[in-house]
Design brief:
With 90 residues, the protein is of the alpha/beta class. It has a single domain, classed as NAD(P)-binding Rossmann-like Domain (Rossmann fold). Helix 2 links the parallel strand 2 and strand 3. The longest helix has 13 residues. The chain is globular and about 35 Å long.
Length: 90
């Protein structure tokens, strides 16, 4: 199964560790944050650990067109996490 997860607030703390854990388990991770520099560091950590590559993006999750464009999902579910909660969005 090719699962995707969008993690908002992924540059540090829970979001950072959640991103790495999903990448470790071979998920397609799209890490979003306002701090692009820290997101790039997160991507490098994932590569050094030989996890699946983490895609990074400065992304507004309230913009439906941008969300669909970035995730490539039109009619499929996209799982995303913001801080300490998870939600399924069609």
């Amino acid at each position: 199964m090719n699962s995707s997860i969008l993690i908002v607030g992924a540059s540090s703390g829970i979001g950072k560790h959640t991103s790495l854990e999903f990448a470790k388990n071979n998920w397609r991770v799209i890490a979003a944050s306002r701090n692009v520099k820290l997101l790039n560091t997160l991507s490098l950590i994932s590569q050094k650990k030989k996890y699946k590559k983490i895609e990074t993006s400065k992304l507004d999750i309230t913009d439906e067109r941008t969300l669909k464009k970035k995730t490539g999902r039109d009619n499929k579910k996209v799982w995303y996490s913001k801080n300490s909660f998870s939600k399924c969005r069609n």
